[in-house]
Amino acid sequence: MSLLAPAGLFALLAVPAILALHWFRRRPEQRRIAALFLFATNVPDSDAGRKRMRLRSSVSLVLELLAAAVLALWLAEPRIGISDEPQRVVFVLDGSASMQARGSDGRSAAERARAAVLAMLDALPDDAQFAVVQSGPRPGVLAGPSAPRAERPHDLVFTEIGAPRAEAAAALRAWTPRQLGHDLAPAIDLALELGGERADVIASSDGDPGPVPERVRVLAFGEARANAAIASARRLRRDDGTARVLCDLACFGALRRATIRVLGPDGTLRVEQPIELEIDAPRHVVLDLADADEPWHLVLAADGDALSIDDACALPVPLRREVRIADRLEPAMSAALEIERAMRSLAEVVLAPIASADLVIAASAGDGAQHELVVQPLLGESDAWLGPFLVDRRAGPAAGVTLDGVVWTAGRGSLPGVPFVFAGEQVLASIEHLARDRVRVRLDLDPARSNLQRSPDWPILLQNVVELVRAGLPGPERSILPVGTTVVWREAPLALRIEGPDGKDVPASGTRERWFEAREPGLYHVFDGDQPAGHVAAWFVDLAESELRTRRSFEQAPRAPVDEVTQRPATGTDRERRLLALLALLLMLGDVVVTRARRAGVRG
Amino acid sequence: MRSECEAHAKRWRLALPRRVLHGVAGDVAARGAGSSVEFETHRAWVPGDDPRRVDWRAYARTERLQVRVTRAEVAPALDVVLDVSASMAIESEKESAARDLLDAARLWGRASGARVRAFRAGAAAIADGEPLEFAGGERSLVPRAALRSRSLRLCISDFLWPDDPFVALARLAADATHLFVVQLLAPVDLDPGAARAVSLVDCETDARIDLRLDESARAAYRTRLERHCAAVADAARRAGASHARVTAAPPATLFGELARQGLLEPA
Q1: Which residue of A has its CA nearest to B191?
Q2: A 104-133: CB under 8 A from B
Q3: pLDDT greater at residue A165 or residue B36
Q4: Residue B36 pLDDT greater than 70, yes or no
Q5: Same fold flag, A88-224+550-561 and A323-471
Q6: What is the DSSP string of B28-75?
Q7: CA-CA distance, A67 to A479, in Å (whole number)?
Q8: Contact A36 B195 (CB under 8 A)
Q9: Counting one residue from A and one from B, how many pairs have CB atoms under 8 Å apart?
């Protein structure tokens, strides 16, 4: 319980006043008589000789004291239940990169949102508690509870650890939205969970966030603007020692002239090309330039472009991660499976001796020291399956495999491992996960009576197996990935160090396998001690975010008004004050009744 | 003894009841405490007997001369028990009346030749000439000193205590020739007077009660007082005592009221 008007408690001075009145009440005329017992049935004890009247704990005194206390509470305007906690406000900031888009006044939606939230912070009471949540694929808390309470480790209620005003303001000033497009709902859910039922939740975005809970107030600061963006890019080495950069550009709005440039790692121009943009029409651009063992930056410059984050992407030197394959099949079997022809269609694979191979293709399972592809029909009777085949494409080897028109002859029996190709109840292919992240893919296949090796699915299947192997090779799993995702570096050296696009070291986790989050778009330099070990590029490519023509500014009041939270105490106070007033009245009436009854008892 | 009291007391004597409680059944005692002749028995007439003592009605029934033999005339005893609690001095009028009644009782006893002794209620005897002090809240009427057997007894009190007075009166009446009970009240006992707010203090226990003495409260008090006095009178009746209730007043008025209520008769 808290008090809206604590000064009302001064009325409690009436309590000692009442006690004093009873203690020092006017001494009436004393009259000595011989038959006091004829006045009352219960004659009080003697108290003669005292200067003051003895304070008797009469019902009247108790009622008067209670009435005084209740009236003091009534004046103090108590708030019971919901009133003992300070106001809570949770701000949800749209962390998507479109918030960086500049409006016609040169200010971005993020700057407008920041200014509005800071103003609201200043207007809130001193004892208010804040939390700031940034939306994203994984919403995060910018300011607010940093750790769950010990006694409720699974409950992120920030009753005691709400962010101070200064901390919330600092978090707001340091906030930069750069996330890919995402839904605000998880962040709003997090805010509602953080704040509890009584918190004001204010979501700031640059457009319509879609349906939000009825308690959420939405402030949008966006503005419809034209924008151009790099939709995709690719760096290719050519056999003649040159390189080619292929890119697709997207134009959202009335932009005409643009220039696409390739810059060196020091920002020097390598090549540029002016282009004409066309509204809502993708533009494919090819840039030829001399190859170099250095990372490049592809930059798009367009007049009137509102958003810059989608105008650049890094092009690291393509990593050669060759997969060494050893063919241990019988020549006839290898020929039947057309291994040699299939390998020619695979990128970055080479034949190698068994000792140095990453992948061994054999007719029987090995010792598991390497990745294995085992192709062997099970002994005994066999069946030729025409389909339909059940293919579990969630398994890595089956991605993109359809087996249309395939005749698959297999023996009857069971394959160990996790099946990913079935014909009825017959398992035709499976995958085993071995120690040290090795895999063994088994195919129950009689190539002499099958046509899988001549179908388009065969090189796809082999490529999938090779990619599974390649993913386990030392180095990054991928050298180009979307911003905000996690980079995994396999077989990382102990002295691995990552330098972010801003030149600062990026913390990495893990030991043998290191991983770090590429939060900033740009080029990440990886070092083994002092020696460069490679590059990883994080791109911001999200055409939905680059489309700014749907952005707008508006304010959406909560359907269950947020102000109700601050109004609720007053409503509650009215109710409680009415109850207190009624109680005080009843106590005073009780005092009157008791006094009258006492007098009547004396007379009777 | 005040001369005024003595002058008025001499006009009266205690009125003994006509029935003697402790004589032979069917006989009548003399009127007056000092001249009573109590019938003893009959005996045969012998020469020399006073012919006036021949019981002629007995001779008519039995045809034998018999004379009435009476007990030798003995001077009676009078024990006076006075309530000396503080309530008997609640007002000077009441205290004076109590003292007058004690003095008058002594006078009435001695005038009839009786041996008179006075006692404090619940306490020791009062010697002649001993100063009296009304104090305390003694509620027992029976003195600590033994009362004389077959004595006449006179009890003077206001009987203003909540207990049933019958027990005390019965003890006083036990082994007594007769008990006279005088309930003496002060004017303030009859009506405490009006007051807007008053703190009433019991003069004996110092108990206190605060109240408004308006007309209704006074009426309620008077009703209770009448009920209490009726209880005292009833207790006296049940104890075989003669009872009178008087209000403190000058001797002439006081004795006249006692005579009117049958406790005194002209001397």
Answers
A1: A33
A2: none
A3: A165
A4: no
A5: yes
A6: -PPSSTTS---EEEEEE--TTS-GGGB-HHHHHHHSS-EEEEEPPP--
A7: 78
A8: no
A9: 98
Q: Which residues pair with B246 in a beta bridge?
A: B184
CATH of domain A227-318+542-546: 2.60.40.150
For residue A58, give both structure tokens: 């009469």
* A353 in contact with B, Cβ within 8 Å: no
The confidence score (pLDDT) of residue A470 equals 85
Domain ranges for chain A, please list them. Answer: 2-76+569-603, 88-224+550-561, 227-318+542-546, 323-471, 475-539
- Residues from chain A that touch B186, judged by Cβ atoms under 8 A, are 34
Whole-number Å distance between alpha carbons of A598 and B223: 19
* Helix (H), strand (E), coil (C) string for A532-563: EEEEEEEECCCHHHHCCCCCCEEEECCCCCCH
C-alpha separations of A199 from A91, A109, A403, A478 in Å? 10, 25, 56, 43
What is the rounded end-to-end Cα distance, in angstroms, of chain B? 19
Backbone angles phi, psi at B5, to 5 degrees: -65, -45
Helix (H, G, I), strand (E, B) or coil at A111: helix
User: Omega before A388 cis (within 30°)?
Assistant: yes
> Which among A28, A46, A603 has the least Cβ separation from residue B205?
A46
Substitution target in A36, A56, A599 with the highest count of B β-carbons within 10 Å is A36
Tell whether A46 lies on the interface with B, counting CB pairs under 8 A.
Answer: yes
Ordered by where they begin, the domains of chain B are: 3-7+78-266 (3.40.50), 39-70 (no CATH)
Asked if the Cβ–Cβ distance from A39 to B221 is below 8 Å, we say yes
Q: Report which of A159, A173, A91 is spatially closest to residue A127, judged by C-alpha positions.
A: A159
pLDDT higher than 60, residue A8: yes
Nearest to A243 by CA among A259, A223, A264: A264
Residue B247 pLDDT grade (very low, low, confident, very high; cuts 50, 70, 90) = very high
Determine, for residues B199 and A30 on separate chains, whether the beta-carbon distance falls below 8 Å.
yes
Q: Do B203 and A34 touch (CB under 8 A)?
A: yes
Give the right CATH number for A88-224+550-561 from 1.10.357.10, 3.40.630.190, 3.40.50.410, 3.40.50.20.
Answer: 3.40.50.410
Q: Which helix (H) or strand (E) holds A337?
A: helix A331-337
Give the B-side interface with A, CB within 8 Å: 86-87, 90, 158, 160-162, 186, 188-189, 192-193, 195, 197-212, 216-217, 220-221, 224-225, 228
A206-219 residues labelled b (16+ CB within 10 A) or e (exposed) = bbbbeebeebbbbb
Contact assignment for B90 to A32 by CB distance below 8 Å: yes
**pLDDT over 90, % of chain A:** 22
Residue A42 near chain B (CB below 8 Å): no
CA distance B83 to B155: 8
CATH T-level topology, domain A323-471:
Rossmann fold (3.40.50)
Nearest CA in chain A to B205: A46
Assign domain A475-539 to its CATH architecture: Sandwich (2.60)
The whole-angstrom separation of Cα B43 and Cα B41 is 7
Helices (H) then strands (E): counts for chain B: 7, 12
Q: Do A31 and B87 touch (CB under 8 A)?
A: no
| A202 within 8 A of A119, measured Cβ to Cβ | no
pTM of the model: 0.49
What's the pLDDT tens digit per position in A169-206?
888 888 889 888 888 999 998 888 887 777 889 999 99
- Hey, is the C-beta of A55 within 8 angstroms of any chain B C-beta? no
Run of H or E residues at B242 = strand B242-247
Sign of the C-alpha dihedral, residues A262, A264, A269, A271? negative
Q: Furthest-apart CA pair in chain B: how many Å?
A: 84
Residues of A in contact with B195 (CB under 8 A): 28-29, 31
CB contact under 8 A, A44 and B209: yes
